[in-house]
Description:
The chain is an alpha+beta fold. It has helices at residues 209-223, 234-237, 253-283, and strands spanning 48-49, 59-65, 72-77, 82-87, 113-117, 126-129, 136-139, 145-149, 159-162, 168-171, 177-182, 188-194, 204-208, 241-244, 248-251. The protein folds into two domains: 48-231, Trefoil (Acidic Fibroblast Growth Factor, subunit A) (Trefoil); 252-285. Strand 7 (136-139) and strand 8 form a beta hairpin. The longest helix is centred in the C-terminal third of the chain and has 31 residues, at 253-283. InterPro entries: Actin-crosslinking, FRG1. Belongs to the FRG1 family.
Amino acid sequence: MAEQVRSTKLKFKGERVKKKRKRDTGEDEPTTSSGKRKKADDKDPETWVLPESVAELRGPTFIIHASDPSPISINLNSTTSRISLQPLDKDKSSDGPEAPKLLDRTPTDVSQVWVTTRVAGSPTINLRTGTGEGKFLSCDAHGLVSADRDARGPQEEWTPVVLPDGMVAFMNVYEKYLGVDEVAGGNLTLRGDSEEVGFAERFWVKIQYKYQKEAHEEEKKKKDGLATEPVIDESSSNRIYQSWGAGRSVVSVEDKKELKRARKEGRLAEAMLDRRAKLKSDRFC
């Protein structure tokens, strides 16, 4: 009896297993009322695809960088609980099979997968490790990137920007961009202090098709009036970006001025409230 071939497809905990149904080749495909054949969506829900918009960034996420000579993926080392940038061609021998094209890459280990979540209506996302206890990717004011936080806060918020060529940049709460940096010894590390988007700050991001389809269905419901708009409108609250040159992208000067003015007014309002509360308490003392 021939030995059954074992599937090498990467599975995630909690995912439903899709049962295959046999279909007779002689049967006609379903048709619509107009007599045209209904196009069936035969794509595997777990197929890895490139997101076309920010709203599609959700669920298991594979992040790679087109480094030279080998592309790298952003991983979590489960032994040290630290982020590692792992070459994707490390196991390829000189006489082995040719490496797949960059955009055909898919994760082969759970350490390469992050889970993207977001608060409903928010333009920002959180990136949580797909292995271990689930830590959040964060960046401090000095640009140091880590994945050791159990809870999410401002430093764990990232604003994704889908660039014209399909690549993605990630901006932190300090309005700086995530990028790959070379340190002593030729090693690569992640930094979060880039002022603008260049080669080092551009990533290819892949998500599973079922989440892309889910985002499309939600968008269709909004257009048809079947779903209520979120409290925070992403189109109005998200920052404005400008692109020129080789896909270079930065935050507009006007937008930065507005943010600074709003923060200053907020601090003044807080100071006035504190002053009034203090005067009121002094009267009753």
